[in-house]
Amino acid sequence: MKKLFFSLACLLAVSVAAVAEPSAAPAVPAYKANQVKAVYAEAYGADCGFGEWGSGTQFTQDTYGKKFVTGPLGYFGLTFEDNALNCSAMESLHLDVWSDADMSLRIVPIHGGAEVGITKNIKAGEWNAIDIALAEFTGVTNWTNVFQIKIDNVPSRTFWVNNIYFYTSQAVDDDTQAPTDVTASLVSAEYFTANIKAQASDNSGAVVFDVLDGETLLATKNAASAVETAITVTGLKANTTYALSVVAKDETGNAAAAVTIDVTTKAAPAPAPAPAHETANVISVYSDAYEAATRFIIGNWEQPTKAVEGELTEGEKAYYMYHATYIGWELQGTPLDITGYTAVHMDIYPLEGTSVKFSPIWGGESLQTVALVANQWNAVDILLSRYPGMVYNNIYQLKWDGMPATMFLDNVYFYKEVSDGISTPAVETSIAKFIENGHLVIIRDGVRYNALGQVIE
Questions:
Q1: H helix or E strand, kind and range, residue 61
Q2: Helices (DSSP H) in 316-453: which residue ranges?
Q3: Three-state SS for 375?
Q4: Cα 178 to the center of its chain, rounded Å
């Protein structure tokens, strides 16, 4: 009995040791606030969010730090997108880690470029002070826009993190010097956007560019000192001339004199014809004519397609898409229920290109191809019966593929009338075109023709 009791006691001791938690906070950071870009540290008044990202990791805000319990996938993110950090003047990344067991983890700053991570070993039962020189992240040259930190390669572990910040060991004196050698010029102007390049030097090693229309701030871009930086300006109106001001400042707020750039945006096409369907028969996703049934975001599907919303004329909005190949709209909240609806409509104005593919996504998809005519509005109507197996009460995304490289998109909605294909301007009565089994089908006055004008029985 004594031997058995001893064995149970040993097992219990091992069990307690395996789930040990911190009993105190890690050492307080010694760097001054002006030497640091903080992600999460009480000493600097900084906090961040949690990116679960489908990993199964569980998160708790603990007395002594952020506690994470990872699943088999072993990853998660620290998110601070709304407060991206300009770390171009920083030297290193610091974080404190406490684990219930010896382990290793990989630390990956996310900055918009290729992901590069550094793996560190962690000793159980104590705060591990980790310092990684930014130069160790081989190949990363742009530290002006760090907006997440990913932790990965750590499956099924329990651990805490605290005091996460970038820092420079160099003393930073009170800075009163504004940036010098400021240059800015226009690269190109589109319908609702302009592309600018700018450069300035500052003794701090970091620069911030503000682009203004009068007193209205249109764009802010972090930059490194003496490095030419591309800035995309949004919120412009089509066919309009602007005198934009580009202001270079340091992060202390010392600002140089503004550089003025004249910008004239392109003239956009006239708006698409107003939809004629009764409101009661419509579930709208995007249209000025109807109240939207859902919000949506542009899916981050690693697509090259750029999508910018703007006004074609006063009060008439549309999306302009360029470098287009494919794109997804992710519907927010409860999936749409389009039970009883018969067709989907959209208006497309391609500047080139002859077709586009489209599908609602319900857990499956079935891209349908429709023909387009360039340099005019195409009223695209597709029967929902063309989507075999569609789950009508679970529409949670919309997908376009094989897109024209540049196009405008408006009036995306489902409706309860029967129509199909893509209607062309009324030069002939009752004409529609669509792709069926890879072949062009033309319906004219109710008769089906192929591309050679032959009647299809």
A1: strand 58-62
A2: none
A3: coil
A4: 33
Per DSSP, 175 falls in state P
Question: What is 229-272 written as a DSSP string?
Answer: EEEEE--PPTT-EEEEEEEEE-TT--BPPPEEEEEEPPPPPPPP
pTM of the model: 0.70
The mean pLDDT value for 335-346 works out to 97
pLDDT value for 447: 58
CA–CA distance, 369 with 356 (Å, rounded to integer): 6
For residues 137 and 117, give the distance between their C-alpha atoms in angstroms, rounded to a whole number: 7
Residue 33's DSSP bridge partners are none
Confidence of residue 277 (pLDDT cuts 50, 70, 90): very high
Q: Which of 229, 230, 235, 198 is closest to 214 using CA atoms?
A: 235
Complete DSSP assignment for 319-338:
EEEES-S-EEEEE-SSPB--
Q: Which of 345, 201, 223 has its CA nearest to residue 285?
A: 345
- In the chain, the amino acid numbered 419 is S
Q: Which long-range contacts link 171-174 to residues 24+ away (Cβ below 8 Å)? A: 171/35, 172/32, 172/34, 172/35, 172/204
DSSP secondary-structure letter at 293? S
- Say which residues have a Cβ less than 8 Å from residue 109's Cβ, sequence separation at least 6: 93, 137, 140, 143, 146, 148, 149
